[in-house]
Amino acid sequence: MPQTSTVNLTIENYLTYDDGTDNRYELVDGAIVVVPLPSADHADKIDLLLEIFRAEIYRNNLSMKASDKVGVYIGKSSVTGRDYSRTPDICVTTSEAWLSLKANRTTAAVLLIPPILVVEVVSTNSEDDYVTKVDEYQRLGIPEYWIVDGRDKLVSVLLLNDGRYNLTEYRSSERIISRAFSVLTLTAAQVLSA
Fold first, then answer.
1. Backbone phi and psi for residue 117, each to the nearest 5 degrees, phi listed first
2. Which of 65, 90, 119, 168 has the fewest CB atoms nearer than 10 Å to its CB?
């Protein structure tokens, strides 16, 4: 196990960080932060959406890959100059970007270019999902960001237009409109019932 400081890490340090555990981490302002295991309810929502996205990719022969095991490099803080990398609950990327990740077997699976779509299922700290990550994903230029909120019983879809996110909230039987999956027939109730 390498002896690496867990503060003031660069993205290069983070990509090769290994503490000998199976823990998942994010890089937040140059520091390693453990991503806790999801609750069973949280995991069910991730599993359902992964199954749906993968089925859509297969059915429509889309050149995409959906995964719950990939990170996204956010960039450097404009204040501290330190690196950030997030681990969305789901990340949808191009097949080309996925093949690039697979080609480098020595580092963690972290996209260095923006994915097509990310999903966050709200857990304990909703401010991260509704404020911090909205800002980060918007600045990075991720075209589509879903926030699945079981407590408030809604699915928020943020679509990037002219560098800014436009928010649409879906409840109960309302059909979710996705730019990445344009023929998707999925309601907020279906997602929230998982």
1. -155, 140
2. 168
